[in-house]
Structures are given as structure tokens and as C-alpha cells.
């Protein structure tokens, strides 16, 4: 039998977003008030459950208490009687387990949090706050901003939702595809920040990746017919399945070709592969699909030397067309180098460098250095590693580049 | 709820349009305005004279300062507006995206502040 705090912790993880989502609707889009009554309900549980026993349906109990507090709140502020009526009408569906079969509120909340009229940073913060129940402090820590900054970002976003009247609705069918794209981009941002932290001491922030996966699973269950949602979830699962092999015992980065593949999470990989299959069966051909397909080819190679680089290079060529950008172009060059030889990759990297678009990006000289090393052009490789070290930002990546440089100098 | 849809365009580019293009854009605006009148969204809307006709006024230390031109030099200038009634931001964005100039310039969608009487 679990104790109250751990049951509550689990309820917070699993049900917070859904309870808040429902309360926002019944409180007519008032995010702040909804969060307040839900937090009050959790506080009440912490107080009552040890004395009176844990209810059979913890989530249903929390929902009922939050709803009652919402009724009190509205009566106190003597707002529209009609709203109280609406709230009471919602009651039967929120009792016990039955309310869990009405996912529309979570979907509404997801689309509202990811509304394009909000800044991308605010979208990410709102989604983590409202759908995952992360505290302001937790989100601030994850994105390396002060809690005050993050709190202000949330307040501003909630104020804009209210004053510009961003609706708490699932978009109309004609706008759904465009809006879904925005939702996926937000989830992708959360995952990327966790997977390849842009700054700071740790390379991976597993917690952020896990929150992104939770949101992706939610989006997947809410939009089951959307091929891009399935693709994004596949992409996340396939990447995340490598998490244990990606960081060495000393916290350093381990590149794909040197990873201990026995550390990969087989169950998660299989789930990712199945999602990709489902996405392809639905006709997915977008950028997330292509990235997931690349990840799948890596995941399916028993050893690094078994990797199907020709197909990966072809997929990157496709990705360059779908989402043109210097970082994708650099990955394409690296794949071409593996498929056809370092000199072919190097000429693509040279073109990129000549374009000047990646002036501050440490991965460009790092990629150059690696190709030069493989071509036996040691002096040029050394100077490229030194240039990469001048712009690198995370500590593990710095250690990785330093180790490579030491190896090269020792040869 | 009321939204002001402010139409920003590059005046220089607009001035360089051929007579035929001007006629075409005018026709598109006519069709658009008629559509939002019929749907009940239209409250008002006007096209403005170019910023060359603009004058900026400020009072500082009780003294009136009048200067030529708009308050700020920007790449795009306010060229006109529609005031519309819309259910929410999504509906207002939907209307804004149908304004012909959305394809060449940009439309700023601003909610009009509502002053409500206290209910108590």
C-alpha cells in the first residue's frame, strides 16, 4: 500500500493536466483560477487522506473537490449564474473514472497552450505547467532562466490569452493541420532542449525528454489519425531509447559509432519502430517522418559498421529539401562522408563554410576536423578542433572535443 | 469582442504598382469588405493617405510640438485599418488573413479594450 504523498505525486504526474484542463473550461478560460483550485484540491488531499483514508478513485476525488472549490469561487465573486449552471452540468462526467473518457478538455488545453499568438518560449512553459504540472521552479531550472523570469513569462501568456481572447477550443477542421504543426513544434522544442541541451553542465535532461514524451503520447491519443503526430512520437522514442548509451560514466558525450548498443532500451526502440510503421501506413512523409526513419536505420543496425549510410544520406538529402537549414546540411554532409567517403563529405562542409551561415556553430569545425582526421590531414584537423573548442557551449561536448584533439596529437 | 486590424505595408512598393495592379487590389478590397459586411463582422474600415501626409503632435512641458511625418520610421507603414467584431482571436485572425494586403504586407490584430460595468 502506497502512502499518501506517493499516491498524490503519481496523481499529480498523471492527472494534473486533465483536471486543470477541465477546470479551465468550466471556469471559462481562466487559467489562473483553474490552477488555484486544483492546487487547493491537492492540498486538501494531503491533509485529509492520512486521516480519512485514500479514496478509491483519487483522481475523481481531486476533480470533485477542485470543482466544488471552483463553484465556491464563482459564487463568491458572484459572476454569471449561468456559469455555475454549466459547471454543475459538467459534474456527472467528472465523477469517478468516467470523466477520463472525455479527452476533449486536454486537447483544448494543448491547442491553447500552443497557440501561435503566444511566443514559442511561452508555449513551452505553459504546456509544461498546465499539461505536465511542472512547477514554475522546475521549468525555470530546465530552461536555465530565473524563476522570476519564467513566472513573468507565464503571467504574460495567461494575460494575453485573456485580453486577446485566445479561445479555449479545438481548432476548426480547416485550421487543424496548421495548428497541429504548431503543437508538434512545441513538443519538439521541449524534447530537443532535453536531448541536446544548448547550455549548461549536463548534456541530457532526461526529465524534459520524458515530459515531451508524455505530451507526445497525449497528443497521439487525442489525434490518433494524424500521421505527423505518430512520426514525432516515433522520433522521440527512437532517440530516447539511446539515452543510457549516449552519456559516459564521467558525463561525457558518446557518439553513435562508439555507443554500447547493449545499453539501448530495446522496448522503447520497438515502440518507436511500431509508431513509425503506423505513421508510414497513414501516409506520413513530413520532416518528422524522415528524421524518425533516419533514427530507425541507426536503431536497427546491430553494430555501427552495419549502418545503412547510403539510405541515411538519401533521407538527409530529402530533409534538406523539406527543412532547409545549415544544421541539416551539416548532417547531410556527415552522412555522405560515411556513405561515399570523407572527401565527398568535406566538399559539402567546405561549401557550407563558404556560405558563412554557420559562423558561430561549433559543430561545423568539429565536423571538418573529423573528416580531415579521417583523410589523414593531421595539421588541418588540429586547427579545426581548436576552432571548434573556441565556440563550444556545453561542458560534456567540450570534454569530447578535447579528448579527440588529445588522441590526434598523440598519434 | 472588437478587434482592430491594422494594415502595414511598404509605401514605396505600393506606390510603384502599375495602374492595372492598383485596380486589381482595389477590386479585391471591395470584394473583401462586402464579404465582411454581409457576415456581420464589419464595424468600420478606412484607407489612409501615405505617411507623407502625416503630422505628429506631442505636448511636452505644456508646450505643443508639431512635427512632420509619422512618430517612428519603420520599414512598413500603417496604410489602413478595419475595425471588426469577432467571437475570439481565432476568428479575428481568420478575417485578417483574408485582407488582400496580408499577402504583401502584414496585419496587426489588436483587441480593443473592453470596459465592463461592475456586476455587483
From TrEMBL, chain A:
GO biological process per UniProt: DNA-templated transcription initiation
Gene Ontology MF terms in the entry: DNA binding; sigma factor activity
Domain of life the protein comes from: Bacteria
Occurrences of domain RNA polymerase sigma factor 70 region 4 type (ranges): 110-160
Pfam (any one): Sigma70_r4_2
PANTHER family: BLL6612 PROTEIN, BLL6612 PROTEIN-RELATED
Protein name: Sigma-70 family RNA polymerase sigma factor
Organism: Myxococcus xanthus
Lineage per the UniProt record: Bacteria, Pseudomonadati, Myxococcota, Myxococcia, Myxococcales
From TrEMBL, chain B:
Pfam family, one: YCII
InterPro entries registered for this protein in UniProt: Dimeric_a/b-barrel, YCII
Domain called YCII-related: residue spans: 1-116
Gene3D superfamilies linked to this entry: Dimeric alpha+beta barrel
Family label: Belongs to the YciI family.
Record's protein name: YciI family protein
Organism lineage string: Bacteria, Pseudomonadati, Myxococcota, Myxococcia, Myxococcales
Amino acid at each position: 500500500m502506497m502512502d499518501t504523498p506517493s499516491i498524490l505525486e503519481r496523481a499529480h504526474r498523471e492527472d494534473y493536466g486533465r483536471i486543470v484542463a477541465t477546470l479551465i473550461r468550466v471556469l471559462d478560460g481562466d487559467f489562473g483560477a483553474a490552477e488555484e483550485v486544483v492546487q487547493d484540491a491537492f492540498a486538501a488531499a494531503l491533509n485529509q487522506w492520512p486521516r480519512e483514508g485514500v479514496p478509491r478513485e483519487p483522481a475523481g476525488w481531486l476533480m470533485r473537490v477542485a470543482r466544488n472549490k471552483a463553484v465556491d469561487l464563482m459564487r463568491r465573486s458572484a459572476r454569471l449564474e449561468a456559469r455555475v449552471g454549466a459547471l454543475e452540468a459538467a459534474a456527472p462526467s467528472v465523477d469517478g473514472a468516467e470523466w477520463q473518457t472525455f479527452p476533449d478538455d486536454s486537447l483544448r488545453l494543448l491547442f491553447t497552450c500552443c497557440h501561435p499568438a503566444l511566443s514559442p518560449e511561452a508555449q513551452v512553459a505553459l504546456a509544461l505547467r498546465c499539461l505536465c504540472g511542472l512547477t514554475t521552479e522546475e521549468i525555470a531550472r530546465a530552461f536555465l532562466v530565473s524563476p522570476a523570469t519564467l513566472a513573468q513569462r507565464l503571467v504574460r501568456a495567461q494575460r494575453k490569452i485573456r485580453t486577446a481572447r485566445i479561445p479555449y477550443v479545438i481548432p476548426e477542421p480547416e485550421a487543424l493541420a496548421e495548428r497541429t504543426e504548431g503543437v508538434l513544434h512545441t513538443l519538439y522544442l521541449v524534447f530537443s532542449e532535453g536531448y541536446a541541451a544548448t547550455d549548461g553542465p549536463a548534456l541530457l535532461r532526461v526529465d524534459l525528454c520524458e515530459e515531451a514524451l508524455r505530451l507526445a503520447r497525449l497528443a497521439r491519443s487525442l489525434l490518433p489519425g494524424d500521421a505527423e503526430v505518430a512520426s514525432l512520437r516515433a522520433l522521440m522514442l527512437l532517440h530516447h531509447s539511446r539515452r543510457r548509451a549516449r552519456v559516459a560514466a564521467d558525463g561525457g558525450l558518446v557518439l553513435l559509432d562508439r555507443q554500447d548498443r547493449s545499453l539501448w532500451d530495446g522496448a522503447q526502440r520497438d515502440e518507436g519502430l511500431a509508431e513509425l510503421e503506423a505513421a508510414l501506413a497513414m501516409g506520413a512523409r513530413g520532416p518528422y517522418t524522415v528524421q524518425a526513419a533516419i533514427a530507425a536505420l541507426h536503431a536497427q543496425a546491430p553494430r555501427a559498421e552495419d549502418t545503412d549510410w547510403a539510405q541515411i544520406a538519401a533521407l538527409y538529402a530529402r530533409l534538406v529539401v523539406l527543412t532547409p537549414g545549415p544544421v541539416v546540411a551539416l548532417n547531410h554532409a556527415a552522412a555522405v562522408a560515411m556513405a561515399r567517403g570523407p572527401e565527398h563529405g568535406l566538399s559539402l562542409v567546405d561549401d557550407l563554410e563558404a556560405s558563412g551561415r554557420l559562423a558561430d556553430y561549433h559543430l561545423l569545425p568539429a565536423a571538418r576536423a573529423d573528416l580531415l582526421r579521417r583523410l589523414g590531414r593531421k595539421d588541418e584537423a588540429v586547427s579545426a578542433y581548436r576552432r571548434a573548442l573556441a565556440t563550444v557551449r556545453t561542458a560534456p561536448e567540450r570534454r569530447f572535443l578535447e579528448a579527440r584533439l588529445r588522441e590526434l596529437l598523440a598519434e | 469582442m472588437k478587434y482592430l486590424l491594422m494594415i502595414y505595408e511598404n509605401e514605396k512598393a505600393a506606390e510603384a504598382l502599375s495602374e492595372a495592379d492598383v485596380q486589381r487590389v482595389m477590386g479585391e478590397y471591395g470584394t473583401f469588405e462586402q464579404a465582411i459586411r454581409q457576415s456581420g463582422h464589419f464595424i468600420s474600415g478606412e484607407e489612409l493617405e501615405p505617411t507623407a501626409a502625416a503630422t505628429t503632435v506631442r505636448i511636452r512641458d505644456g508646450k505643443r510640438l508639431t512635427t512632420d511625418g509619422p512618430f517612428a520610421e519603420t520599414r512598413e507603414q500603417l496604410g489602413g485599418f478595419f475595425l471588426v467584431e469577432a467571437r475570439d482571436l481565432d476568428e479575428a485572425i481568420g478575417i485578417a488573413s483574408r485582407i488582400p494586403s496580408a499577402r504583401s504586407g502584414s496585419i496587426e490584430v489588436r483587441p480593443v479594450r473592453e470596459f465592463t460595468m461592475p456586476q455587483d
